[in-house]
């Protein structure tokens, strides 16, 4: 079975992972320093959790979340409105031949972590986990 990468396909190349991380860092800097001249965007504190780059390096999807998860849709709209300027800033910083098209999506990592915590806190799951622990102890 093929190993999966951040892109969901077969294991990503080192280059796509490197470019994705470079974009994530630079995008974080751009947003934290207010380098995009849009008052709606500069008013928000946005976390860039991950950037996934397509295997051909043509598309980069940044998974973002405003501080506290508030105004998420407004943040996405502001980022999408300014994608041209953001891409231009990326091109200057990355020094690669073609700057990927920038796309933005909400980062649902924290929501998934909360759902996992709730699942493990469920009394039925706890009972099953403790049952498995007891069975493992009896086998030893």
From TrEMBL:
<dbReference type="GO" id="GO:0005829">
    <property type="term" value="C:cytosol"/>
</dbReference>
<feature type="region of interest" description="Disordered">
    <location>
        <begin position="121"/>
        <end position="140"/>
    </location>
</feature>
<comment type="subunit">
    <text>Monomer. Binds 30S ribosomal subunits, but not 50S ribosomal subunits or 70S ribosomes.</text>
</comment>
<dbReference type="InterPro" id="IPR000238">
    <property type="entry name" value="RbfA"/>
</dbReference>
<feature type="compositionally biased region" description="Basic and acidic residues">
    <location>
        <begin position="121"/>
        <end position="134"/>
    </location>
</feature>
<dbReference type="GO" id="GO:0030490">
    <property type="term" value="P:maturation of SSU-rRNA"/>
</dbReference>
<dbReference type="InterPro" id="IPR023799">
    <property type="entry name" value="RbfA_dom_sf"/>
</dbReference>
<comment type="similarity">
    <text>Belongs to the RbfA family.</text>
</comment>
<dbReference type="GO" id="GO:0043024">
    <property type="term" value="F:ribosomal small subunit binding"/>
</dbReference>
<comment type="function">
    <text>One of several proteins that assist in the late maturation steps of the functional core of the 30S ribosomal subunit. Associates with free 30S ribosomal subunits (but not with 30S subunits that are part of 70S ribosomes or polysomes). Required for efficient processing of 16S rRNA. May interact with the 5'-terminal helix region of 16S rRNA.</text>
</comment>
<dbReference type="InterPro" id="IPR015946">
    <property type="entry name" value="KH_dom-like_a/b"/>
</dbReference>
<dbReference type="Pfam" id="PF02033">
    <property type="entry name" value="RBFA"/>
</dbReference>
<dbReference type="InterPro" id="IPR020053">
    <property type="entry name" value="Ribosome-bd_factorA_CS"/>
</dbReference>
<keyword id="KW-0963">Cytoplasm</keyword>
<keyword id="KW-0690">Ribosome biogenesis</keyword>
<protein>
    <recommendedName>
        <fullName>Ribosome-binding factor A</fullName>
    </recommendedName>
</protein>
